[in-house]
Amino acid sequence: NTVMAAQMTNAHRRFLQVLMSNGITEGSEARKLHQHCCETDKVYYAHDKLDDFISTINSHLQPLFMQIRKGISEDDGRAHYAVVNLAETEVTKMASDYTEMELELFRKTMDLIILSENGFASSTDILNLADQLKTKKMKKKEAEQVLKVFVEDKWLSEKNGEYTLHTRCIIEMEQYILSNYQDVARKCNICHSLAIQSQVCESCGIGMHLPCVRKYFRGQTEPRCPKCNEFWSCDTP
Questions:
Q1: What is the pLDDT of residues 141-161, one digit of tens each?
Q2: How far is CA 7 from the centre of its chain?
Q3: Where are the domains of the chain?
């Protein structure tokens, strides 16, 4: 490990450390951080070379089964970066931070979100699961507190009492979700990232993130599916 790290410049190491401590970093922040690390370390900086800079770090992280991954916010389509542990694709990667009871609530919440039509689960539905846990029944007040922690730790996002998976969770758990929810989990036809909140073509069943739908149909007089060319019946955002 030390040998691999020694081959990276201080700029690469500093960038990686900040990303790891952040949990997830928005694209514009990552670009600022890239510039700051290069200038501090007095190494060559080019504003359009962030992906190359990250590829260098990833080549050193490969033997450690880790990787910096880029993901798209389902909310606004912005890029985000997170460090992913490839050796632990299960929800067990959260095991060191949460109790078995909390993890069970998270899994059940994940079920509700992924199996829903719009990629959201209401707080009422989630809290109703709290007293059905196999590990130990959880009081609603306690469950509310746990949900708050999941939001603070960027595993869930909440808007007006509705919960969905945070971008960090989607980046880190993409493989877990695709293999455990094979019948319902789909990738976006445009950006090829996992799509939880998406619109689906009624004819051929492909899905697209809402920001991708917005971008793809911009300027088109009649929205048609990029795969089967049938009329796109969903209301485009």
A1: 999 999 999 999 999 999 999
A2: 29
A3: 10-64, 91-174, 185-236
